[in-house]
Design goal:
The protein has four domains: 146 residues, Resolvase, N-terminal catalytic domain (Rossmann fold, 3-Layer(aba) Sandwich); 115 residues, Alpha-Beta Complex (Hect, E3 ligase catalytic domain fold), CATH 3.90.1750.20; 66 residues, no CATH class; 112 residues, no CATH class. Helix content is 42%, strand content 19%. The chain contains 18 helices and 19 strands. The protein is flat.
């Protein structure tokens, strides 16, 4: 891998050496002489000892303080690789191999980059020659131990967190609304933030009052409430996001507000003060459980959602998802259809998360929308050239052999009359295949109250009627 010997064989040539240093944590880096400076000093001394071979260190500093060696997502390392690829570096010098990386896979990748640009790697404290098999074996053994040390440290950290949670201690994580993190020598603790705690109590109270999440979301947005805001160690302002449906649900389910801590599936008594009493918390959990079992709850996308994933809300710039609601059964009704009825809609995902007032036209009846789209497909499929293309690409996937209709030119010419029968005979998956093959997306503009069916480029469209504007890959209707 290394070409240090061949590179330095000519004493008259200058060997440009880049010194790379790394420390896993940022602790102590604020000191005048820190561990990165110590690593660089040792590397400079080593390079000076090779002065007779033409070695000179580059003034550019490649220091990664506070970055793990478990991956290569490090700013200084990226700059170093860019300079290597630009031909500015002949040798990379590190204090130890694990300063460059602790991963065998990443090291192999880095060595491949070095070899490709005729550069070498040198470890100051570990003497080996990677130009022969024994040197490469030695290097791989060192890297294996470095990777083992990293994995062992990760296991120790996980065990430490688990032990702290079992004792009820706050073992780290993102700050939560209602509490401030107090840093202490024996470990961090949670202290109640009175203003935020009052908001949390009102969120629980509003959910019990309304029995649904969306009214709580709307109320929180009206009052300007957000998630927890805090300043990271880097000085960056974090959090402060609007309270969406998922974030409200996360608050309502979090046992931390009971004065407890969670570790995986286990709940332990915590050292911090509770914000919500047990009776209130249990009432909220019971109501959420009842909502999940209620006949009026939303049903998954299993009810013939032909346009799943392709309907877009133009106003909000987001997708519209399929939802179905079952009307509660009427015990007095005689027919089964009257006892239970399914109502399907395509709903703007933004409105679903942030409240119906966030979108001027949050939902569309699924049956009407799908019938409109199928009508546009019927107009397109009536053209012989489109059906020939469909036959070629779908005959292997569709159990209905569309190609059989094209065996005779006369049958192809009469396909317009057979489309409805063909569609009726298709299975649900076959219908979805046909739609996906022709349509790129369906746009709903709630402000203009228009629908646009966007066909894939290359799909021949029928000539528009006199009352309809001509388009290339789009059909519109009010």
């Amino acid at each position: 891998m290394s070409r240090a010997n061949s590179t330095t064989s000519k004493t008259s040539a200058v060997v440009r050496c880049a010194i790379y240093t790394r420390k896993s944590t940022s602790e102590g880096l604020e000191q005048d002489f820190n561990t990165l400076d110590a690593q660089r000093e040792s590397a400079e001394a080593y390079i000076a000892s090779q002065k007779g071979q033409g070695w000179e260190f580059l003034p550019e500093r490649y220091d990664d303080g506070g970055y793990t060696g478990g991956n290569v997502e490090r700013p200084a390392l990226k700059r170093l690789l860019e300079d290597i690829e630009a031909g500015k570096v002949d040798v990379v010098v590190c204090y130890k191999v694990d300063r460059l990386t602790r991963s065998l896979t990443d090291f192999a990748r880095l060595m491949e980059i070095l070899d490709r640009h005729h550069a070498s790697f040198v470890s100051v404290t570990q003497s080996f020659d990677t130009s022969n098999s024994m040197g490469r074996l030695t290097l791989n053994v060192l890297l294996s131990f470095a990777q083992f040390e990293r994995e062992l440290a990760s296991e120790r950290t996980r065990d430490k967190i688990a032990a702290a949670r079992r004792k009820g201690k706050w073992a780290g994580g993102l700050p939560v609304l209602g509490y401030d993190i107090v840093h202490q020598p024996g470990g961090n603790t949670l202290a109640v933030n009175p203003e935020e705690a009052d908001r949390v109590r009102k969120i629980f109270s509003m959910y019990i009052e309304h029995g649904r999440v969306m009214p709580v979301v709307v109320a929180c947005r009206h009052m300007g409430w957000t998630t927890k805001s805090w300043t990271a160690k880097t000085g960056r302002l974090m959090g402060g996001k609007p309270l969406s449906k998922n974030l409200i649900l996360r608050i309502l389910k979090n046992p931390v507000y009971l004065g407890k801590v969670r570790h995986h599936d286990e709940i332990y008594e915590g050292e911090h003060e509770a914000i919500i009493d047990q009776a209130t918390f249990d009432a909220v959990q019971a109501r959420m459980g009842a909502n999940r079992e209620d006949h009026g709850s939303r049903v998954c996308n299993t009810n013939n959602a032909l346009l799943k994933g392709i309907v877009q809300c133009v106003h909000c710039g987001c997708s519209m998802v399929h939802h179905a609601v079952s009307k509660p059964a009427d015990p007095k009704a005689k027919s089964s259809s009257a006892r239970a009825r399914l109502y399907r809609y395509y709903v703007c995902s933004r409105a679903q998360k942030h409240g119906w007032s966030s979108c001027p036209g949050a939902s569309l009846p699924a049956d009407d929308l799908e019938q409109f789209v199928v009508g546009k497909i019927r107009d397109v499929v009536n053209q012989d050239e489109v059906m020939e293309s469909i036959a070629k690409t779908t005959v292997e996937r569709l159990t209905i052999t569309i190609g059989a209709l094209l065996a005779d030119p006369d049958e192809a010419m009469g396909l317009a009359e057979n489309f409805d029968a063909l569609w009726k005979g298709m299975k649900r998956d076959e219908r979805i295949d046909l739609i996906r093959m022709l349509i790129e997306r369906v746009d709903w503009d709630p402000e203009e109250e228009t629908l646009s069916v966007i066909f894939f480029e290359g799909v021949p469209l029928p000539e528009p009627s006199q009352n309809e504007p001509k388009t290339t890959s789009e059909e519109q209707a009010a």
